[in-house]
């Protein structure tokens, strides 16, 4: 390879020549920092990468490698020969500057904080160190959405977990194309985990980074609120997502959604969101990628270890104490992604159970759900890369995992505790009667409106004393009446016994967003106080008559003005009925007017009523009016009290006689009123009696229907019990079959391993279905290659006709056998046979590889010996 020479002969002492500025000048704390992960054998890829970085790019590069801890690092000197940028071996507290390259020294781990590099002595033993993951995680925390991770040629899976952290912060991930990598394990691991935004040959990656950053600066100039045109385009993106996936992202935080869309726009170098809408319409696969991008399915085992430790040592033992009789505890991991947190819970439960050693038997049933079907499939498989050792202690790896290939598989004991399912926590019904809910780093992506729905939903799902476990940036906010903090730092909360407010649904069937264009949250605006408002308020307060609003039974709903002269609380138990509170002299006439107003549906006025004792001079007019409008007050009754000024009378002879006549006349009037009321009461009682008779007949009919329904329910219950017994029987049979299948699978695995015959199973499209140990020595196979065509995977066999021969076997259903040599001189007998199912259906081919190197060597020796003997003869 032709290497570029550094124009500065003085090495690191002479500043590099910067002919142009590729990117706009940034503040020191904001210029892009690119983290590059590669193995020690990736020098060639690093040289190609740096040689294609244009001078004055405005970027800083931090290279993290797997280096031999016993040798002095010479990587800076090697790289300085092919780049004009300054190349440094990193030192503790070294400041990262633009247009420079920094290389990790041997036998160190490296982190970054506020643009400064920090070196650490490795904590893990040699062979288990993951320096790339360690740096990428710190880069994600330090640069957030400005973090850039690059994976080049390398062995193992180091860097994959660090790239997950970068993706979680909305950073960008670039990966060298595996076909161009000398060692393709690290690139394949990143691609297989679904983390790569851009996959390209190493020489194209620097240009991709610069193009991404240039468009990112154009796109991120957009500020909220969006212009009407951009808002419409954003809503169209959400519509396309809903049409493709069936899920509505309109209740996710608009800023989060838009930033994720901006990231995809920058990758495709699209400057306006309207253009991205067209791109989505023309490229349906981009909709699927954006859907997964918005799900932000990033997690890891035992995230926030201190919180998990508190869960193990304090929370779970307390839950066990609340159930002295033992039994099954139930937990729900909402938004479980690929299952790490659900399995973490299962592990800490087993550890807590071993520490407490309760006398009763306990089991934990965990329901783990997520929106992403692919993530659920990975969680069910329970297979994780080897670099989970950075998060899982060696004791836990040994106890709860089984080492398999290049990674770990969850042990059967833990796997059986977790049930995975695809679920939309926003729309689908929740699990109930739970002891523990884990919902970590989900609420932070949802709007406050949706958070206010989900927290009461979690309260509804938990049993009394149940525990809610949230993420480090989440809290129960305004719902302290529903949850009491167990540990604010660890975000652990206990369910309180509390009644939900009347306007809050405890169990919503769905959360429907507001209409398009409607505001998401209503802000209470203080009304403008003017002269008219103040005058109206003064008139109502001091000059309008006293009034009371009651329902049709007389219960007081609202009081206006001062009513103390007319109403007083009744003695004994509190009673807010107006007839119980009416003062002496008003009760009878008020009751009569009230009933008359209800019957006639019009205003009834009773005048000149005396309040209190006979010698009282206080008199009042009472108006009773039923209300028809507005609709909100329909059926209610307004009672208005108007004071009457009593006339002054002069004393004159014969006053006693006149007073007596007046009294007699008043008594006769009252008696006439009583007669009228009595007649009205009789008519109402007659009507009520007829209604009661009709209601009684309806009740009898209803009672007969209820008896019939009860008999049907009894029959249904018996049928359900029978069905339940049948299901239990079927479940037992299924369990037995699963155990038998597990034994057969183990037998087959041991049989295949003991024969030492490498076997590869392909489907009818010649895609890899399964392979035995040793196949990865002939082909560069990884667990993630299952489902890929075998022809896409490079191998050591000199057998270019393999795919054609396999197709021929599928066509003719006759086996094929050839002797093939590998690139390292070994010989294999390759036999291709049809794969027949128990139903005699051809479902692909089986390819076996038998090592015949020894036979070939012996054959060659015999041929040489025969030739020698013939020559001698």
How are the SSEs ordered, and which strands pair?
Elements: E1 33-39, H1 43-51, E2 60-66, H2 75-80, E3 86-89, E4 94-95, E5 100-103, E6 109-113, E7 116-120, H3 131-143, E8 148-151, H4 160-168, E9 172-176, H5 185-192, E10 198-200, H6 205-219, H7 228-245, H8 254-267, H9 273-282, H10 284-295, H11 305-321, E11 327-334, H12 340-356, E12 362-370, H13 373-381, E13 383-385, H14 394-400, E14 401-404, E15 407-410, H15 412-415, E16 418-422, E17 434-439, H16 448-461, E18 462-470, E19 483-487, E20 492-495, H17 531-542, E21 546-550, E22 556-560, H18 578-581, H19 587-600, E23 604-610, E24 619-626, E25 637-644, H20 655-755, E26 758-762, E27 768-771, H21 775-778, H22 802-812, E28 816-821, E29 827-836, E30 842-851, H23 853-872
Parallel strand pairs: 1-2, 1-8, 2-5, 3-5, 8-9, 9-10, 11-12, 11-17, 12-16, 17-18
Antiparallel strand pairs: 4-7, 6-7, 13-15, 14-15, 18-20, 19-20, 21-22, 21-25, 23-24, 24-25, 26-27, 26-30, 28-29, 29-30
Helix pairs in contact: 3-4, 6-8, 7-9, 7-10, 9-10, 11-12
């Amino acid at each position: 390879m032709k290497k570029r020479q550094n124009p500065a002969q003085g090495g690191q002492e002479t500043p590099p020549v910067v002919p142009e500025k590729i990117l706009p000048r940034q503040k020191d704390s904001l210029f892009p920092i690119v983290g590059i992960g590669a193995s020690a054998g990736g020098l060639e890829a690093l040289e190609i990468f740096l040689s294609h970085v244009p001078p004055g790019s405005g970027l800083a590069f931090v290279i993290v490698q797997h280096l031999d801890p016993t040798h002095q690092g010479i990587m800076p000197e090697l790289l300085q020969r092919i780049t004009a940028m300054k190349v440094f071996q990193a030192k503790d507290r070294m400041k990262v500057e633009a247009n420079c390259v920094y290389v990790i020294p041997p036998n160190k781990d490296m982190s970054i904080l506020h643009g400064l590099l920090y070196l650490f002595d490795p904590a893990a033993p040699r062979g288990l160190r993951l320096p790339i993951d360690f740096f990428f995680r710190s880069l994600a925390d330090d640069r957030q959405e400005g973090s850039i991770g690059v994976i080049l040629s390398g062995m193992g899976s180091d860097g994959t977990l660090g790239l997950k952290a970068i993706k979680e912060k909305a950073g960008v991930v670039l990966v060298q194309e595996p076909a161009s990598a000398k060692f393709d394990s690290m690139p394949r691991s990143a691609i297989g985990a679904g983390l790569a935004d851009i996959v390209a040959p190493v020489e194209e990656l620097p240009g991709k980074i610069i193009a991404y950053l240039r468009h990112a600066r154009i796109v991120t100039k957009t500020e909220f609120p969006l212009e009407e045109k951009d808002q419409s385009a954003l809503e169209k993106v959400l519509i396309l997502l809903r049409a493709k996936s069936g899920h509505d992202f309109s209740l996710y935080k608009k800023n989060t959604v838009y930033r994720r869309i901006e990231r995809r726009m920058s990758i495709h170098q699209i400057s306006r969101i309207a253009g991205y809408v067209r791109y989505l319409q023309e490229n349906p696969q981009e909709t699927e990628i954006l859907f997964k991008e918005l799900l932000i399915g990033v997690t890891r085992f035992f995230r926030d270890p201190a919180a998990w430790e508190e869960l193990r040592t304090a929370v779970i033992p307390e839950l066990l104490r609340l159930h002295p009789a033992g039994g099954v505890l139930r937990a729900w991991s909402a938004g479980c992604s690929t299952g790490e947190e659900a399995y973490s819970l299962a592990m800490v439960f087993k550890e807590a159970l071993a520490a407490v050693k309760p006398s009763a038997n306990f089991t934990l049933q965990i329901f783990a759900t997520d929106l992403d079907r692919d993530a659920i499939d990975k969680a069910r498989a329970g297979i994780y890369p080897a670099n989970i050792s950075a998060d899982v202690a060696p004791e836990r790896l040994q106890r709860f995992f089984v080492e398999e290939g290049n990674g770990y598989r969850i042990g059967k004991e833990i796997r059986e505790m977790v049930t995975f399912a695809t679920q939309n926590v926003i729309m689908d019904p929740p699990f109930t009667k739970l002891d523990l809910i884990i919902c970590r780093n989900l609420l932070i992506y949802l709007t406050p409106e949706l958070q206010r729905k989900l927290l009461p939903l979690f309260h509804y799902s938990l049993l009394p004393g149940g525990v809610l476990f949230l993420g480090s940036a989440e809290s129960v906010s305004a719902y302290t009446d529903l949850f009491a903090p167990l540990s604010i730092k660890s975000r652990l909360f206990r369910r309180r016994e509390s009644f939900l407010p009347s306007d809050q649904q405890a169990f919503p069937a769905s959360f429907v967003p507001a209409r398009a264009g409607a505001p998401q949250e209503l802000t209470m605006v203080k009304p403008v106080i003017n002269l008219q408002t103040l005058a109206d308020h003064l008139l109502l307060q001091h000059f309008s008559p006293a009034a009371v609003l009651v329902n049709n039974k007389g219960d007081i709903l609202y009081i206006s003005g001062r009513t103390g002269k007319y109403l007083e609380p009744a003695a004994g138990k509190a009673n807010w009925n107006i007839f119980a509170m009416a003062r002496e002299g008003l009760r009878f006439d008020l009751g009569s007017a009230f009933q008359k107003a209800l019957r006639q549906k019009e205003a009834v006025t009773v005048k000149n009523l005396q309040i209190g004792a006979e010698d009282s001079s206080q008199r009042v007019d009472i108006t009773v009016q039923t209300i028809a409008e507005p609709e909100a007050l329909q059926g209610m009754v307004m009672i208005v009290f108007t004071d009457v000024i009593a006339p002054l009378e002069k004393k004159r002879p014969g006053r006693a006689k006149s007073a007596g006549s007046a009294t007699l006349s008043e008594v006769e009037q009252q008696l006439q009123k009583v007669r009228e009321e009595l007649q009205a009461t009789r008519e109402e009682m007659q009507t009520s009696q007829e209604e009661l008779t009709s209601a009684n007949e309806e009740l009898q009919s209803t009672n007969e229907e209820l008896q019939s329904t009860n008999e049907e329910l009894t029959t249904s219950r018996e049928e359900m019990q029978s069905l339940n017994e049948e299901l239990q029987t079927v479940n037992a049979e299924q369990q037995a079959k699963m155990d038998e299948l597990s034994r057969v699978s183990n037998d087959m695995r041991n049989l295949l391993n003991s024969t030492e015959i490498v076997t590869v199973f392909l489907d009818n499209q010649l895609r890899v279905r399964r392979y035995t140990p040793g196949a990865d020595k002939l082909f560069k196979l990884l667990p993630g290659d299952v489902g890929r065509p075998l022809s896409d995977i490079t191998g050591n066999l000199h057998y270019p006709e393999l795919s054609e021969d396999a197709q021929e076997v599928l066509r003719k259903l006759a086996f094929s056998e050839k002797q093939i040599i590998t690139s390292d001189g070994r010989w294999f007998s390759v036999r291709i046979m049809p794969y027949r199912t128990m139903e005699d259906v051809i479902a692909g081919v089986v390819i076996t590889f038998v090592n015949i190197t020894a036979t070939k060597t012996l054959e060659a020796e015999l041929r040489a010996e025969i030739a020698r003997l013939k020559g001698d003869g």
